[in-house]
Amino acid sequence: MKKTADTLLDAIAAQLDTLLQQLAAGFDVTPAQRLHLEGLTAAWLLAGGDAQVLLQLCRQRMPAGTDVKLSVDGRTLQFDLWQQRAPVYPTTTD
Questions:
Q1: Of 31, 40, 63, 87, which one has the fewest beta carbons inside 10 Å?
Q2: How far apart are CA 16 and CA 33, in angstroms?
Q3: Structural domain boundaries, residue 25
Q4: How many domains does the chain have?
Q5: What are the pLDDT digits (tens) for 17-67?
Q6: Where does the pLDDT of residue 10 fall: very low under 50, low under 70, confident under 90, or very high at 90 and above?
Q7: Is the pTM for the entire model greater than 0.85?
Q8: Would you say residue 75 lies in a domain?
């Protein structure tokens, strides 16, 4: 169990780092990527992991000012990753 939990925690950290790098570079995070991360966290929690330890790990990895919200709902951890607003320009045609 310990090895599995460590492996899951490493995978969560790696996936979170990847998504944070994408956001920092100005790219969006696809729903599939976010759901993959949430699935890893759900597996870790179902394996007996502590939600507070997971929250602390995630918050430590996120740079200050990161627009990522974490919430715990029972045995799930939800990530809200805000995407860049698409530029909208007024049209010149009627």
A1: 87
A2: 10
A3: 2-81
A4: 1
A5: 998 888 888 888 888 998 898 889 888 888 888 888 888 888 888 776 666
A6: very high
A7: no
A8: yes
Whether residue 68 contacts residue 20, with contact meaning beta carbons closer than 8 Å, is answered with yes
Would 90 be classed as within a structural domain?
no
The string over 47-69, giving b where at least 16 C-beta atoms fall within 10 Å of a residue's C-beta and e elsewhere, is eebebeebeebbeeeeeeeeebe
User: Can you read off the two tokens belonging to residue 16?
Assistant: 């979170």
Q: Is residue 91 part of a domain?
A: no
Answer yes or no: is 94 within a domain. Answer: no
Q: What tokens does 28 get?
A: 């969006």
Q: How far apart are CA 50 and CA 41, in angstroms?
A: 10
For 14, the 3-state DSSP assignment is helix
Distances (CA, A) of 5 to 8, 14, 41, 67, 76: 5, 14, 10, 27, 16
Q: Which residue has the tokens 């805000």?
A: 82
